[in-house]
């Protein structure tokens, strides 16, 4: 009877160790995937920021050259830039 209990206990311990090792490998794999996804997200975020900057630069260029179809929008952008410059000059004057 004691042998039977010891045998079952040993079998359960071996099963737990096996599950532990399996989960440990799965965790390492998931950690690796997480790091990869974080790096990809960072790269995508940087690319997104760069593209937004390029869009803003193109819009600004269009505003100054009048190349865009909507001259009213160009005037608004230039007016906004002038207001920003005026604010900066006012802040420097204080």
Textual characterization of the structure:
This protein is mainly α. The chain has one domain. Helix content is 93%, strand content 0%. The chain contains 2 helices and no strands. The protein is rod-shaped. The termini are far apart. The mean pLDDT is 87.
Fold topology:
Elements: H1 2-65, H2 71-93
Helix pairs in contact: 1-2
What are the secondary-structure elements, in order, as H or E? Answer: HH
Helical residues, percent? over 70%
Structural category: mainly alpha
What spatial form do the alpha-carbon principal axes imply? rod-shaped
End-to-end distance, in Å? 93 Å
Count of β-strands: 0
Whole-number total of structural domains? 1
Largest sheet: none
Beta-strand proportion: under 5%
* Rg, Å, rounded: 32 Å
Number of helices: 2
Low-confidence stretches: none
Mean of the pLDDT scores?
Answer: 87
Using brief descriptors, characterize the structure shown.
single chain, 94 residues, mainly alpha, rod-shaped
Give a quick summary of the entry.
The protein has 94 residues and is mainly alpha-helical.
């Amino acid at each position: 009877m004691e042998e039977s209990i010891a045998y079952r206990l040993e079998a359960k311990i071996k099963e737990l160790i096996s599950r532990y090792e399996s989960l440990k490998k799965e965790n390492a794999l998931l950690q690796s995937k997480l790091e990869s996804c974080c790096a990809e997200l960072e790269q995508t975020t940087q690319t997104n920021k760069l593209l937004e900057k390029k869009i803003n630069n193109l819009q600004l260029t269009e505003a100054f050259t009048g190349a865009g179809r909507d001259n009213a929008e160009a005037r608004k952008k230039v007016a906004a830039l002038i207001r920003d410059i005026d604010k900066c000059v006012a802040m420097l004057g204080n």
